[in-house]
Specification:
Layout (H helix, E strand, L loop, with lengths): L1 H21 L8 E4 L6 E3 L44 H13 L10 E6 L2 E6 L11 E5 L4 H12 L4 E5 L5 H8 L3 E2 L1 E4 L4 E3 L2 H12 L6 H4 L1 H14 L18 E5 L4 H12 L4 E5 L5 H10 L7 E4 L4 E4 L1 H12 L36 E3 L6
Parallel strand pairs: 5-6, 10-11
Antiparallel strand pairs: 1-2, 1-7, 3-4, 4-14, 5-8, 6-11, 8-9, 10-12, 12-13
Helix pairs in contact: 2-7, 2-8, 3-5, 3-7, 8-10
Length: 374
C-alpha cells in the first residue's frame, strides 16, 4: 500500500533517510544537522560521525539589502473555499501528512463544543492554566520529525511562539547557548527555561502551560517519532531544504495557522526553506487566536494569513503567500545572498508589540465559531 500510494521513490527515501539520517536513533534521539548550500540533512547526535559539507558562510560577505516589493505588486484578494487545480496534489499529500499524525494539533487541549446564544461555541476546559506573557522562542526546521512534536504541543496549548528556522542565520546562537547544533531548541523568556530534546520540551510545556498531562498522541515516544517521520516523508523532505540564496529580513513576519492544515503547511515549508523568522499565532479549534484574527482582519476566520511588517503586506491564500515569499525573499530576489550579512549576525529579531493579553481564568477561553470555517 505504501509503495502504491507514494511510489517506489518514497519507499526508497524512507529506507535511505532512516538508515543514513536517523539510524537506530529514530526511536529516541533528536536531530542534529549541519549546514549545506542546498539542503540540510539529518545525522546522528555524534558530530564526529558527520561528513563535512560546504558552509555558505564561507562565501564572500555582502552588504545587507532590505527586501523590496516587486514593481506593480498588488496584494491579491482572498478567495475562500477555492483550491487551484495545480495545488490539488499539495493539498492531498498535505492531508495525508495530517492523517499520519492523527491531526494532532488541530484542536486545543481540553477542546469542547457547545451550542450558545450566538451559535456554536468552541472552547477549552483546561486552558489557559497559565498564559505566557511573552511569546516563546523555537529553533527548528519544518521537516524535522522531532520539531513537529513541539509544534503540535504549541498548537494544543495555544501558545504564541517565535519560530527561527535554523539553516545559517540562527545556528551559531544555538551552539553558543546550548553547546551543540541540535534541534528542536526552546527558549521560554517567561521562566528562563532553555533546552533540547523534543520529549523534554513537550513535557515542560504541558507542565507549565497545561494541566501537566502530556496527551496520548505525544506521550508514546517510539510511536510518535515513527509516525512523525513518515509524515515528513510524504512531503518528500520539503521544508528541509535551504535556498541557495535568500534576502534576510530585519524583522520577523507574523503568521496565523495551525499545524495539520495542508494549506498552512506549504507556507511553513517555504518560510523554513528561505530561513525567514516569524511569530506564529496558533489557530487550532478552540484557540482564542481565531477570534483575534477575525477582529484584526475585519472578516471571517481564514488561514493561512501572513503579515510582513518589513513591507506592510498582508496576505491570505497559501499559493499567493508562497509566491510572494519567493519573489521578495527567494534566490532570484533583489539583494539575495548566500551568506548572512555582518549587520544581522547575532541578532534575534522580535516584534516589540508581540505581547499577549493577561491570563484569564480557566474555562473562559472561548471562541465563537459561528463565523469560523476551515
Amino acid at each position: 500500500f505504501f509503495s502504491r500510494a507514494f511510489g517506489i521513490t518514497h519507499l526508497m527515501a524512507f529506507v535511505t533517510w532512516t538508515v543514513r539520517g536517523l539510524g537506530i536513533g529514530i526511536l529516541g534521539r533528536q536531530v542534529q544537522v549541519r549546514p549545506s548550500a542546498v539542503r540540510v540533512r539529518c545525522c546522528s547526535s555524534n558530530p564526529a560521525s558527520s561528513t563535512p559539507v560546504a558552509d555558505p558562510q564561507d562565501d564572500e560577505q555582502q552588504e545587507w539589502v532590505a527586501p523590496k516589493l516587486p514593481e506593480g505588486f498588488t496584494p491579491p484578494q482572498p478567495q475562500r473555499f477555492v483550491i487551484r487545480r495545480e495545488n490539488w496534489p499539495e493539498v492531498l499529500l498535505g492531508s495525508v501528512t495530517g492523517i499520519m499524525r492523527g491531526y494532532t494539533g488541530a484542536v486545543v487541549s481540553g477542546y469542547r463544543v457547545r451550542l450558545g446564544s450566538s451559535g456554536i461555541e468552541e472552547r477549552s476546559t483546561t486552558l489557559p492554566q497559565t498564559r505566557a506573557a511573552k511569546p516563546l522562542q523555537l529553533f527548528e526546521f519544518e521537516s524535522c520529525p522531532f520539531c513537529r512534536k513541539v509544534r503540535e504541543a504549541v498548537n494544543m496549548l495555544d501558545l504564541d511562539v517565535y519560530v527561527y528556522p535554523c539553516r545559517v542565520r540562527f545556528r551559531p546562537q544555538i551552539a553558543s547557548r546550548g553547546g551543540k547544533e541540535q534541534f528542536p531548541y526552546l527558549i521560554d523568556p517567561n521562566t528562563g527555561f532553555e533546552g533540547y530534546e523534543s520529549d523534554s520540551i513537550v513535557r515542560y510545556l504541558f507542565e507549565t502551560y497545561g494541566d501537566g498531562k502530556v496527551p496520548l498522541p505525544l506521550a508514546i515516544a517510539p510511536v510518535t517519532n515513527l509516525t512523525s517521520t513518515l509524515a515528513t516523508l510524504t512531503r518528500s523532505g520539503k521544508g528541509g531544504y535551504r535556498a541557495t540564496r535568500t534576502v534576510f529580513p530585519s524583522q520577523p513576519l507574523e503568521f496565523w495557522g495551525y499545524e495539520p492544515s495542508p494549506f498552512v503547511r506549504v507556507v511553513r515549508e517555504k518560510l523554513s526553506e528561505l530561513e525567514l523568522p516569524y511569530l506564529l499565532h496558533p489557530t487550532s479549534r478552540g484557540s482564542v487566536n481565531r477570534k483575534k484574527q477575525m477582529e484584526r482582519t475585519g472578516g471571517p476566520f481564514q488561514v493561512p494569513y501572513l503579515e510582513d511588517i518589513n513591507l506592510g503586506v498582508k496576505l491570505f491564500e497559501s499559493p499567493d503567500i508562497v509566491e510572494y515569499l519567493e519573489e521578495v525573499y527567494g534566490p532570484n530576489a533583489e539583494g539575495a545572498s548566500a551568506a548572512l550579512p555582518d549587520v544581522l549576525k547575532d541578532q534575534l529579531p522580535t516584534l516589540e508589540t508581540a505581547i499577549m493579553e493577561p491570563a484569564v481564568p480557566s474555562g473562559e477561553a472561548e471562541a465563537s465559531s459561528s463565523q469560523m470555517q476551515q
